[in-house]
Amino acid sequence: MSKALDVRDLTVAYGQIAAVRGASFTVEPGEIATIIGANGAGKTTILNALCGLRDVRAGTVTLGGEDITHLPPHERVRHGLAQVPEGRRLFGRMSVAENLEIGGYARSDHAAQKHDLDHVLELFPRLRERYRQLAGTLSGGEQQMVAMGRALMAKPRVLLLDEPTMGLAPQIVDLVLDAVRRVNREGVTVLLVEQNAYGALEIADRAFVLESGEITLTGHGLELINHERVRSAYLGHEA
Predict the structure, then answer these.
(1) Which domain CATH number covers 20?
(2) Can you give the pTM of this predicted structure?
(3) Rounded to whole angstroms, what are the CA distances from 137 to 29, 93, 195, 204, 236?
């Protein structure tokens, strides 16, 4: 079986500065994988390179056995890759319904879209209650649900999540991470970038530590929770 995501020797640069240097990692179908690291380590740069928002200087990105390294972003969506960006990036003056509908823009299977919309509203019942409300008036946690729902409307095989719990209250963080688990149980492979290292490692089947643009450590999430260097550098009092 092909890897859900196979990244080989990825190098991404801003001008002459390499933000990511020779990063290699794989994510198996059905897994939750996470990349943890300090601010500025290159986590978001990797996600943006995977979805085509940042040019790859060297290396390859393969999705389900298909080389997508140089495909434009909209083609990657059609191949089954969707991203929930940092900060959610909703259309605040549009309703929850309109934001969700935009997620299916690349699809032509309208009957299936209706089924998937119903499914998103089952996953996130709060969105059914807020369906006609402007997205910009929602709480942070509700906005994150809309952003995840919008990405799921593209029917991705692999979902990229960039800092989904940033700025949320602790109890809402737990709700969002539980939603990630539920989405994964529905068969969607997840690659999660999180500043909340402990929460991410708790739910991850596979985890990667990124330091100064390089993958320096790989293991099961719970394995890395107990790794001395990870505990010292990223977990602090939570360890």
Answers:
(1) 3.40.50.300
(2) 0.92
(3) 36, 9, 25, 32, 35
